[in-house]
Every structure is written in structure tokens, then in C-alpha cells.
Amino acid sequence: MCRCCSHLVDAYDKERFAESKKELDALLYDESLATVPFLILGNKIDIPYAASEDELRHFMGLTGLTMGKGKVNLERPLEVFMCSIVRKMGYGDGFK
């Protein structure tokens, strides 16, 4: 059985980034999830002025912590993928 965790962030609603970061940090520091892969999805990229992937990484405190698309760190795979659930794009690669 594959055990993984995903965290969906509204990339357009930057005023709620602090709330989302707090939730993500709680998951990342939960010892029972210490080796669980994490997928962070930045949603709503179809809306003008949504945060870029770099902005999202910065606000979530993930700069330098992600693996790089396609690379896997066996201790804790962690990656950000930008997506639009409405337009059905971007999230498929993350789940692969």
C-alpha cells in the first residue's frame, strides 16, 4: 500500500498562505509522517496574479527543500506542483 500525503494550496489567495503554511508545518513535523512522501499542489494557476511556483515555495518555506521534479530522496520525497483543478492540468504529474 502506498502511503503519501498531499497539501492543496490556493495559489491565488495569498492572504491565506500563513494559514496554509501552519497546516503544512504541522504535517511535516508530525513524527508519524516522518518518512511519508509529500505533494504540495499550488492550485488556481488559471487565475491571473496567482502565485508562481517560486513564490509558493518561498511563502511555504520550501525553497531548497524539494527534490526537483523526477528526483527522489528516499528519506522524505517532497515536491511542489502547480495546477488548475478546474482546467484539469498539472496535478497528474505530481501524483505520478
From TrEMBL:
What UniProt keywords are attached to this protein's entry?
Answer: Endoplasmic reticulum, ER-Golgi transport, Golgi apparatus, GTP-binding, Hydrolase, Nucleotide-binding, Protein transport, Transport
Entry's Pfam families?
Arf
One GO cellular component term of this record is: endoplasmic reticulum exit site
Q: Where in the cell is it found?
A: Endoplasmic reticulum; Golgi apparatus
Q: Does the keyword rRNA-binding apply?
A: no
**Keyword Transport among record annotations:** yes
Mostly located where?
A: endoplasmic reticulum
Any one biological process term the GO annotation gives: intracellular protein transport
Question: Where does this protein hold GTP?
Answer: 43-46, 85-86
Which GO molecular function annotations are given, in alphabetical order?
Answer: GTP binding; GTPase activity
Family label: Belongs to the small GTPase superfamily. SAR1 family.
Name of the protein described by the UniProt record:
Small GTPase superfamily, ARF/SAR type, P-loop containing nucleoside triphosphate hydrolase
